[in-house]
Write a structure and sequence with these properties.
Layout (H helix, E strand, L loop, with lengths): L2 E4 L4 E5 L14 E9 L16 E6 L9 E8 L2 E7 L7 E11 L2 E4 L8 E4 L14 H9 L2 E8 L2 E8 L7 H11 L10 H11 L9 E3 L18 H9 L5 E4 L1 H14 L4 E11 L6 E6 L13 E13 L10 E6 L5 E2 L2 E2 L1 E5 H6 L8 H9 L1 E7 L5 E7 L6 E5 L6 E3 L1 H4 L6 H12 L15 E6 L3 E2 L4 E9 L5 E12 L5 E14 L4 E8 L1 H4 L8 E10 L5 E11 L3 E6 L8 E8 L6 E10 L3 E11 L4 E8 L5 E10 L6 E9 L1
Parallel strand pairs: 1-9, 12-13, 15-21, 26-32
Antiparallel strand pairs: 2-6, 3-4, 3-7, 5-6, 7-8, 7-9, 10-11, 14-16, 14-23, 16-17, 17-20, 18-19, 21-22, 23-24, 25-27, 27-30, 28-29, 28-31, 31-32, 33-34, 34-37, 35-36, 35-38, 38-39
């Protein structure tokens, strides 16, 4: 079988004697193991070359020579010789061919080409000499070997999640990842350098510039491909990419890019994890200010608001030593393959040190300023008049970068890692980091501080199911010694998770008087009949409140995203899962809406249990049910995760997962 091994780990070859060793029974022979990197691109470009690290000779026996790969005899038995080979820690990763030449006093013999003795060399997080070395075994188990993960989404007050099949050990996935490198014409020089490979990998996951793996699409039209919300894992995507000869796969959004990049990295031996940043700024102007333009009535002016705040944005972190940076900036590095902005001419981002981001040290490679802005932009509300003039009415320095989380080691819970990216808001360390960022080229916060109104407003909402009526609560807190009267306009619109707004479905005015040092609650009724006709694929509603204090004429504003929960999908197991024994899995769904669901897809996937299965249904009537049963025969014991996803044009993000313990 083909060998799968990290660099600098010893691999064992058994060289069978007859007829190759027929003259070597009583004298030592010199064994020469020849290794050639097997690449799938133009053979002229990748012709084996000793100087380029694609042709390696390992000498064992009389003719030992100095080399970066180590070879030695492990043992002999009759005509069989067992030799150990240890690759160099900085060697090129990829698939190698092997040839054995035996030199004796009677001549020289060499083996023929045998694909069964090909092997793969990967990066090695177990070896301190490798850039990607991780000291704790629990971290290696989670960030290299775990083939199922959790990707978080929703919004910071209502976190939701979905399981994702990384599937780095699925058959064909490693070859597909190497094809990504070949199709992207990654120079051989970079294939032994984890830093360069990670940077190039972030570009090769998206199809911008280089026909990479995935086509991004945020249009809601997925008729020529698969909706991003329908995928359940990476293997299906990578294997399709390989089967189609490097043709980009349709379609992806941020969590799909992050999930597939995570597979790519773990598959090549690089420790990686998916991180979600809630309230993530996309600062088009790079000035650390996210500008929200309101019209005269307090609603968002979509034509003039260029910046956006994503409810959440998923990217990756990789763990590596950075010899190109000061030592304290090694460790976790941000890498992002979602095509937002170009870096050195390509749509890619990172790797950039998390520790450097926290310190505001933005002068080191790569793309630190962009990542810093995603976490630290100020949210600035402007109001425009009918002539197009604008003025600042409020500044919120705490809205962006609310929360950063990732899957906890050996757990289905999440870890709050916000403190690894930023210091507590308003602390001395936070101010020092901002000053450092300004010294490194970030535009200073040069707007004039607004006079304190003494009145604060906030919106609250409970967790709401899609299709339900609900109430918004507007809390008005008067922290002055004078009674105040507030007139407020509440605008509700449908919004993508990327912060791009769509149809306005609600416009309502409210007024309230608030006594000194008191808080008044104002209730706003929101009916399903108002928002359902305009709802987009990810069920997000944005409410913007614009208020004016009648006594002072001062303005105040706030906004809140409400993420609606999709309908439920249930998974039930019948029988006891045992190796070699059948058991049943039933997936059920009920249509809770008063409209027909058409062209419904149901996807099932479980690494190590079943390959991806796809079922299609023409329609599900209002109140109607879908029930699908599958028979599964486990081949291996242990914990498995079965993932299910139901998807159609009018209902997205209907997912569930179930842990199954195979005895």
């Amino acid at each position: 079988p083909q060998h799968l091994m990290p660099s600098s780990h010893c691999m064992i070859f058994k060289v069978i004697g007859s007829p190759l060793f027929s003259h070597c029974t009583t004298i030592w022979a010199s064994i020469q193991l020849l290794l050639r990197l097997n690449c799938m691109m133009d053979t002229k470009v990748f012709s084996p070359d000793e100087n380029r690290g694609t042709y390696i000779a390992v000498f064992i026996g009389k003719e030992k020579r100095d080399g970066r790969w180590n070879g030695r005899v492990i043992g002999t038995q009759g005509n069989d010789v067992t030799v150990g080979i240890t690759p160099d820690a900085s060697c090129i990763i990829g698939r190698f061919r092997t040839f054995v030449t035996v030199v004796t006093d009677f001549g020289k013999q060499r083996t023929q080409r045998n694909p069964d003795t090909d092997f793969y060399v990967l990066f090695n997080p177990w070896d301190p000499a490798d850039l990607v070395y991780v000291s704790r075994d629990t971290d290696r188990q989670e960030y290299v070997l775990n083939d199922v993960g959790i990707i978080y989404n929703g919004e910071f007050n209502n976190i939701t999640s979905r399981s994702w099949n990384y599937g780095q050990f699925e058959e064909g996935v490693l070859d597909a990842c190497l094809l990504v490198l070949d199709a992207g014409k990654v120079p051989l020089l970079y294939r032994g350098n984890a830093i360069e490979l990670v940077r190039l990998g972030s570009a090769l996951m998206n199809s911008q510039d280089d026909n990479g793996v995935l086509v991004g699409n945020w249009s809601s039209d997925y008729s020529i491909g698969t909706a991003p919300t329908a995928w359940t894992g990476s293997p299906e995507i990578l294997l399709k990419y390989a089967k189609d000869g490097g043709l980009p796969v349709c379609f992806a959004q941020c969590w799909v890019f992050a999930g597939v990049l995570n597979t790519f990295l773990r598959c090549l031996g690089i420790p990686a994890r998916v991180v979600t940043n809630f309230a993530s700024a996309h600062d088009n102007t790079g000035n650390l200010k996210t500008d929200i333009i309101l019209d005269e009535n307090g609603g968002m002016n979509r034509s003039r608001t260029r910046d956006s705040i994503w409810n959440y944005h998923s990217w990756n972190e990789v763990y590596m030593r950075r010899p190109d940076l000061p030592e304290k900036y090694s460790g976790w590095q941000v890498v992002d393959s979602t095509p937002q902005e170009t870096s050195d001419g390509l749509y890619r981002c990172g790797p950039t040190s998390v520790n450097a981001i926290k310190d505001g040290e933005l002068s080191y490679p790569f793309d630190a300023r962009f990542v810093f802005a995603e976490l630290n932009s100020d949210l600035i509300y402007y109001q425009s008049d009918k002539y197009g003039n604008t003025k600042i009415i409020q500044v919120d320095t705490t809205y962006v970068g609310k929360l950063l989380i990732t899957k906890r080691v050996n757990s289905n819970a999440y870890d709050d890692i916000t403190s690894t990216y930023k210091y507590p808001e308003g602390s001395d360390k936070d101010r020092q980091a901002m000053q450092m960022a300004e010294h490194r080229g970030i535009a200073p916060r040069d707007y004039i501080p607004l006079a304190e109104t003494g009145v604060h407003i906030e919106l609250q909402a409970d967790t709401i199911k899609m299709g339900e009526n609900f109430k918004l609560t507007l809390n008005i807190k008067n922290q002055t010694s004078q009674k105040c009267t507030i007139s407020a306009t509440i605008t509700g619109c449908v919004v993508y998770y990327t912060g791009v707004t769509s149809s306005i479905f609600k416009l309502e005015s409210k007024a309230a008087s608030v006594d000194p040092w008191k808080t008044t609650k104002v209730m706003i009724d929101v009916k399903a009949s108002e928002y359902m006709p305009y709802l987009l694929e990810q069920y997000n509603l944005l409410f913007v409140v614009y208020g004016r204090i009648q006594e002072t004429g001062m303005a105040l504003t706030t906004m809140r995203v409400v993420a609606l929960r999709p309908p439920e999908l249930t998974i039930k197991v019948t029988g006891t899962p045992r190796v070699g024994k059948d058991f049943m899995v039933t997936v059920s769904f009920r249509n809770p809406f008063n409209f027909i669901l058409k062209n419904v897809q149901l996807r099932l996937e479980s690494p190590g249990l079943i390959l991806t299965k796809l079922k299609t249904y023409d329609q599900i009537a209002p109140g109607g049910t879908l029930q699908h049963t599958d028979t599964i025969t486990p081949q291996y014991p242990g914990k498995k995760v079965l993932m299910a996803c139901l998807d159609c044009a009018t209902v997205r993000q209907v997912t569930n997962q179930l842990e199954i313990f195979v005895q």
